[in-house]
Design goal:
Elements: E1 8-13, H1 19-26, E2 34-37, H2 46-58, E3 64-67, H3 72-81, E4 87-91, H4 93-100, H5 110-123, E5 127-133, H6 144-163, E6 166-171, E7 174-179, H7 190-195, E8 236-240, H8 258-261, H9 282-290, H10 304-314, E9 325-331, H11 344-355, H12 359-368, E10 370-376, H13 391-410, E11 415-420, H14 425-437, H15 441-444, E12 449-450, E13 454-455, H16 457-473, H17 481-489, H18 491-505, E14 510-512, H19 515-527, E15 535-537, H20 544-553, H21 569-587, H22 592-596
Parallel strand pairs: 1-5, 1-6, 2-3, 2-4, 4-5, 9-10, 9-11, 11-14, 14-15
Antiparallel strand pairs: 6-7, 8-10, 12-13
Amino acid sequence: MSADGWSSVLVLGGIRSGKSAFAEALVAGAASVRYIATAVGGEDDPEWLARIEAHQRRRPQSWSTEESGADPARLTAILTDAKPDETLLVDDLGGWVASLLNPDLQPNDDVATVTALAEAVRTSAARVVVVSPEVGLSLVPQTPLGRAFADAVGTANQALAEACDRVVLVVAGRPAWLKTAADEPGIVTDVQAEAATADEPGAQAAPVPQPAPTGTAPVEAATGAAVPAVEPRSAQVSVATPAASLDAPQAARSRPEKETADDEADVVIEAGMDLPLPDSDAGPDARDRLATLDLPGSGVGALAEAIEFAAATQSTASPRPWGPVRVLLLDGRDAGAASAGDSPAGSDRRTAQVEAGEGALARLAAGAGADIAVVRVPDTGALEDGPVLDDAAVEAGLRQGWELAVAAAADGKEALVIASCGAGTDAAATAVVAATTGAEPVAVLPRVLAPGGKYDDEAWMRRCAAVRDAMHRIRHEPRGAKDILAQLGGADLAVAAGALLGAAARRIPVLVDGPVGIAAGLVARDLAAQSRHWLLLADAGRHQLVRQGADVLGLTPVLELGLDLGEGANALAALPLLRTAIALAGALPVHPALLESPGDDDLSEFLEPEPNGPGPASV
C-alpha cells in the first residue's frame, strides 16, 4: 500500500460524468503511468475515434499506452506482472467487458475471467486505478446483447469494488466516495481528502492538514557553516499599470463572491492539497464545435489548443477571451555561481523600467491590457554550498504567492502571467527541473546571453558547475516539493509555485513561458496535481529546459514562434492572437448548411442564445 493509504481505486461513472478525468487526476503526480486502453474496434466510426483522440490529447507524453482490448486475458496478465514502482490506469472496464462478450474472443468461463481480474487487482504490486461505467442507474436495455453487457459490467463492478481499497462514483464531475478504508466505512481517508471537491460550485475543498516535517533544526552546509536563514517576510509588491491599448479588453467580468470572501488564513499548503479541475467535457465539446463554425476556411489550426483550454477553464463550449490580466514579475537574487553573468543592477534596471512603463515587458502589457505586479522577494543562498532557504522562508514564499493570486482574483483579473527578471533564476530553475524530472542539467541549462547578442560561455560553465555540485549535494536528500524549494529553488520559485496553487484554487488560468514558470509548475504539481491543468504554454521559446519540463507537465506549446523576449514577455506577445482565436470560436455561429441539412446529428448543443433573446450565437 502506498504512503497515502491506497493501492487500488475503482472509479465509477456514467457517460460524460468526468470519471476518466478524475481518474487521471488521481495518478497525475506519478512520475510515469502505464495507460491500459481497453477499447477495440470503431475504426469506421469517426465520432468514436474522436472520443479516443480527446482522451489521448489529455495524457502527458511521459505516459505509455498499452492496448488490451483484443484479448480479455491480457489485462489480467498486465496487472499480475506489474512492478511495485509502477502506476497503472485502466480505462475503461466497459471495453474489456465488450471484448469478453465477443463470440470470437470469449473465454470458456467469463465468470471465472472476472474473478481472475478482481484477484489480479487485489494482489497487484503496482498502484492501480480502474475506470468503469456505472450502468445500473438506467432502464434495462431492450436488446439481449444490451442486457448481457449491463449484467456483465454490473457483475464486474461488484467484484472490482470488493477487491479495491477505494471506490468512488463520479456524477457530473463530482466524486462521491463509496468505499474509503477496509472494514472502516465512512472514514475520510487521504484519497477522499485529496480528490473530493467542495460542496459549492467554484469553491475549493479545505486542504488536508499534514503533520509538520521532522528535523526542523537549522541546516548546516557541507563546510560546517550555518546557512543564514532568509527573513520570512512578505514579498514587496508594487503594481504598475501601463497605458492600455484601445484593443485590449478592460472591463472585468464579475466573479462569484465566494472566490474573494474566503478566509485564507486557514489554507494549509501541503502535498495532497485538493484543488478544482477544469471542466473535462467543455474542452472537448469546444473542439468539436470548431468543426461546425461558419468559417471561410478549414479552421484555426494550432490555436484550437488555446480554445479548448479556455473552454475547459470557463466550463463552456463557447469560451470568451480573457479580460484583464495580471503579470507577476518576480525579482529574485540567487547568490553564488548560479548568477554568473547576471548582476543585481541588471535586475534593478528591468524592474525600474516596468515601474516607469518602459521596456519590452511594459509595452507588451500595455497592448494586452495587463497590469504588472513587481514582486521583490528575499535573497536566496548559493545552491552549490547548501540549502538556499530555511523552512520558514519556504512557507512564507508559498503563502505570499497564494495571496498574490487571491488578490488578482479579487481585483477581477481573469488570467495570470508568470514573469521573471531575477539574477541566477535560470540556474535555480534548471536544478529544480533536473531534480524533479531526471533531466541532464548540462543539456537543459539555458546559455548566458550578454549584451550585444553574444554568449558568455564562461559564465554558463560556472552555472553548470554550481548546478552539478548542488545535485551531488542532495543525492541522498528527500525530494518532496518543499525539500526541493529549500535545497535548490529559492524564494522566487516558492512565490511562483504558491501563485500557481492560488490561481488554481480560484479557477484562474496561468500563462507560463519560461524556466521559472515551468519549474514552479513542477513544484506546484507535487503539492496539488490538479494545478497543472490550469497552465497554458503559449510558446516554448528556445529553451530546452522549458520543453523538457513542459513535457513532464503534459503541456503542449500552442505556438512555435521561437520567441526569446524574456520570461513573461513571450506570453504577452502571443496573448492578442490567443484572444482573437477564442473570441472567434465563442462568437461565430454554426454554419447554416449544417442546420438545414436533414438527417444530420442534433447540433442544438452548439447553439448559444443571444443575450437579448433566443437564437444561435453571432459575432
